[in-house]
Design a protein that fits this description.
The protein is an alpha/beta fold. The chain folds into two domains: 202 residues, Rossmann fold; 36 residues, no CATH class. The protein contains eight helices and seven strands, in the order E-H-E-H-E-H-E-H-E-H-E-H-H-H-E. Helix 4 runs parallel beside helix 5. The mean pLDDT is 95. It comes from Roseicyclus mahoneyensis.
């Protein structure tokens, strides 16, 4: 399918690996020029070069911590006028509700709520002026069904979801569509980190921990970054102009809900 976005320009956050890289590669395959961001310069540049070589699109790589004001300013200056924004940030660490302090919540809110909002505030006005734009926020299945050990993520990402619910409907008539992608368990470094937690808690090997986690997924496996990226690219396409303010689960059926 021709997504109709060849020649558009996208900023994809946390895109040196994992879900962000999956989104970047899918957009590049559709002919979109990219601005990539991550904290680690070496991995980021390696990803940028791999995408240039494979897809022949323009790729600008900006190594910076986008959750900090100075880093975000650098990324926005390099990005300029973009048509597509994909926000993404690693989730806060798991733990117990009794262990978290106010500072822990502030860090989670900065990374997983306030940074995406700041990026939208900076870039959506330009999309409105040009009469077209797409924003995809990578959140989590936990906004549909909370994950007890991920209370910091549950709280921060649900706050972003509430913001998007109202904002998306205010800008839709201007040609700008804002939606959220809610990943479940995908084969990324984050999955490995959670497997280590299961292995420690249940005194099992990492292989056994993965099997335990996969057993809880109706599809019986983790998702791939390629299928996640393809969904993101579709939401950024010309065909998705009537999808507004939605929360789309990519979790292999793990979230048990009728609607």
């Amino acid at each position: 399918m021709d997504l109709g976005i060849s020649g558009k320009r996208a900023l994809v956050c946390a895109s040196s690996k994992g879900l962000g890289r999956g989104c970047a590669e899918a957009l590049a395959e559709a002919g979109v020029d990219l601005v990539l961001n991550a904290r680690g310069a070496e991995a980021l540049e390696a990803t940028a070069q791999a995408i240039r070589d494979q897809y022949g699109v323009s790729v600008t790589a900006i190594a910076a911590d986008i959750t900090e004001e100075a880093g975000r300013a650098r990324v926005l200056e390099a990005a300029g006028a973009v048509d597509i924004l994909v926000t993404n940030a690693g989730g806060p660490p798991p733990g117990l509700w009794s262990d978290w302090t106010r500072d822990d919540f502030i860090k989670a809110l900065d990374a997983n709520m306030l940074t995406p909002i700041a990026l939208m505030t900076a870039l959506v006005p330009g999309m409105i002026d040009r009469g077209w734009g797409r924003v995809v926020n990578i959140t989590s299945q936990s906004v549909k069904a909370p994950i007890p050990a991920l209370g910091l993520s549950n709280a921060a990402r649900t706050g972003l979801t509430g913001y998007v619910a109202g904002t998306a409907r205010q800008v839709a008539a201007k040609g700008v569509c804002i939606n959220n992608l809610l990943p479940g368990s995908h084969d990324t470094d984050r999955a490995v980190a959670l497997e280590k937690g299961v292995a420690k808690a249940q005194d099992v090997s990492l292989e056994e921990a993965r099997a335990i986690r996969c057993k809880a997924i109706p599809s019986g496996r983790y998702g791939t970054i390629e299928e996640f990226g393809a969904t993101c690219a579709f939401l950024c396409s010309q065909h998705a102009g009537f999808i507004v303010g939605q929360n789309i689960l990519l979790d292999g059926g793990q979230t048990s809900a009728t609607i």
